[in-house]
Amino acid sequence: MLYNRSMCADGQIIRSRSNAGLKRMRAVLAGRERGALVLEGERLVRDAIRLGYPLEGLFVGDDSLELHESLGGEGSLVEAALLQQASGLKTSPGVMALAAVPEALTFDQLDLEGDPLLLVVAGVADPGNLGALARSAEAAGGRALVLLAGGTSPWNAKALRGSMGSLLRLPVVIAADALQVGAELRDRGIRQVVAATRGGKAPADHDWAGPTALWVASETGALPDSGQGLEPLTIPIAGGVESLNVTVAASLLLFAAGRGGPQAK
User: Are 206 and 193 in contact (CB under 8 A)?
Assistant: First the structure.
């Protein structure tokens, strides 16, 4: 595990807000500094270590000595109250880490063999929703997540927490041009469908065989111009409910594709 020891305290407990690592984490979380992400909590930190993410700083609360020991004694011990202040959470996350933002992927770097399922997300602004979308995509057997510019960053701390590590494990492509994304998918023979509030085919009647990209829109329901040529799918809804939350709708459609679990195609 690699991390920048200059941000750590050489065996001493950090008791000052002016520590370089704590200051940098606060700056990243406040959006004042780019190029790094903050991992909060044991699950995310362990996922990052397992996946080989080089950590720029690792900080463990002084009330989590067993956790510190289980991490091989790596990183710095920090007063729990200071760690909580750095994270902004109601309770101390126990452990936090700084890591570099992963390099942007391209479609050429994705594994698109067989019948891949991709999730294309357009303009989702709420980081909690984005994290949940990534989590559902991974659970449903999705091969990659494609994010269009204009939404929240996948490296937002709340998105990372909401994804329960899926945003670290799932390949992520970030694209500026929705039309180009649509063209890239067509050129690769990937069928494109879109979640539609009304007027689309029922998911149960759709043929999910073959490479598929599912587009979902922002919380407002707006799609970019490239969404006009996509095959609409509409989830039947009973009663007086007008529409579903974007994460609920996407999850139902992702699992309808049948790529996850022992019955996956």
Answer: yes
On whether the CB atoms of residues 59 and 95 are closer than 8 A, the answer is yes
Among the residues of 34-177, which ranges form H helices? 42-51, 65-70, 80-87, 127-139, 157-163, 166-169
Q: Which residues 6+ apart lie within 8 Å of 195 measured at CB?
A: 214, 215, 216, 217, 232, 233, 234, 235, 246, 249, 250, 253
Structural domains in the chain, CATH included, are 5-100 (3.30.1330.30), 107-256 (3.40.1280.10)
Helical segments of 98-177, H only: 127-139, 157-163, 166-169
Q: pTM above 0.85? A: yes
In angstroms and rounded to an integer, the radius of gyration of the C-alpha atoms of the chain is 20
94 contacts 59 by C-beta, under 8 angstroms: no
265 residues of the chain, pLDDT tens digit each: 444 444 444 558 999 999 999 999 999 999 899 889 999 999 999 999 999 888 999 999 999 989 999 988 888 999 999 999 998 788 878 999 999 998 889 999 999 999 999 999 998 999 999 999 999 999 999 999 999 988 899 999 999 999 999 999 999 999 988 889 999 999 999 999 999 888 899 999 999 999 999 999 876 555 655 555 789 999 999 888 888 899 999 999 999 999 875 444 4
Separation of alpha carbons 17 and 150, rounded Å: 33
